[in-house]
Amino acid sequence: MYNILKNHIAKFAQVSDNDFEQIKKYFNIKETCKKENLLKEGQICRHHYFVLEGLLRKFYINEKGTEQTTEFAIETWWITDNFAYENRLATEFFIQAVEKSTLLYITSENQQKLLEEFPVMERYFRFVYQRAYAAAQKRIKFLFSFSKEEFYFQAVRNHPEFIQRVPQYLIASYLGFTPEYLSEIRKKLLS
Amino acid sequence: MYNILKNHIAKFAQVSDNDFEQIKKYFNIKETCKKENLLKEGQICRHHYFVLEGLLRKFYINEKGTEQTTEFAIETWWITDNFAYENRLATEFFIQAVEKSTLLYITSENQQKLLEEFPVMERYFRFVYQRAYAAAQKRIKFLFSFSKEEFYFQAVRNHPEFIQRVPQYLIASYLGFTPEYLSEIRKKLLS
User: Fold this and answer.
1) Domain extent listing, chain B
2) Fewer CB within 10 A of the terminal residue: chain B, N end or C end?
3) Considering only CA atoms, which of A61, A55, A66, A62 is closest in space to residue A96?
């Protein structure tokens, strides 16, 4: 399973087999059940997750008491509450397995030690954060630009495999509307 | 002026004086007039800007033909259209000086060369992107959580110096409402 991380690192940085044997010791493997919570609101955010297999989501409970999903993570994506993780603070988010998943995770302390012992990993994480930031900037533009309906149509066009895989009520939660409203939009799209 | 960058790097990574003399050669200085456009929609995004003095904003023209501001950058902040910059693509954004500003900028090619010649700069940019990403994640939560009115009240409470400095019509553009509506909210806040 560690090979998935090894191959992902190799896309961005050169790490020898010997070094990777050391690097992987900083990580632990975790198997989750479907719907298992890895992080809950109010807990100190200690872990950064790398998805080997499966699908996670991040959400918070909004003032109406409903779950607002802000992020998904599929294979080779990293996910955490970055601000709380870096500063070891209590989080306002939940991280939950949407599917039965297999993950690697690292603690904030170990990520710091890893970067000190293997500076080549700075390059890897620089790419990880750079791309995640660029994607978040795109998301912010989308949130302003599109009506929720258009946002859904875009997602269906650009990420059909994702829309197929994620349960409809979670797509609704990501887009910020009710499952009933999503069901109406889908009918419109199919007609 | 280069000392501002040097001090900012020193917060995150150890760079010797000799190395910094080499590093700074990758950058150019630019002085801008107020309202000068550094990047326009449709242009290839070639530069990453570091603000030494002044204030920049990033915006796009939405379907109604109005300017939607998505980001500001003050002293020691970096700004670009990251996706277009990394991939050397045409941008959908404008970057404009809100005040007369002094900037450093680097091209995408030079940033890559800099990172190859001085791997210690990977650590610096890893921190830059990591924090920018965490801030963007917070922004996304805010965009979902708060009504625009609450968003303004939050900004006044948390960043009063910023609200003072940025012209009101640009605050309105950042929050996605008309200057008239902002003016009504401000009256409410003062009353």
Assistant:
1) 2-141, 146-191
2) C
3) A55
Spell out the residues 6+ positions from residue A126 whose beta carbon is closer than 8 angstroms to its own.
B115, B122, B125, B126, B129
Please give the ipTM for the structure prediction.
0.91
CA distance A49 to chain B (A): 15
Euclidean distance between CA atoms A185 and A149, whole angstroms: 7
Residues of B in contact with A71 (CB under 8 A): 137
CA separation (Å) from B7 to A137, A187, B20, B21? Answer: 27, 57, 11, 13
Answer yes or no: are the C-beta atoms of B60 and B92 closer than 8 Å: yes
Nearest Cα neighbor of B80 from B51, B109, B100 is B51
Whole-model pTM? Answer: 0.92
Query: Given B126, B137, B145, which is nearest A126 (Cβ)?
Result: B126
Chain B interface, mutation test: which of A141, A145, A148, most B Cβ atoms within 10 Å?
A141
Cα nearest neighbour of B115 on chain A = A123
**pLDDT digits over A154-185, tens only?**
878 888 888 888 888 888 888 877 888 888 88
CATH superfamily of the domain spanning A2-141: Jelly Rolls (2.60.120.10)
| B33 alpha-carbon distance from chain centroid | 17
**3-state DSSP: chain B helix, strand, coil percent, rounded to 5?**
50, 25, 25
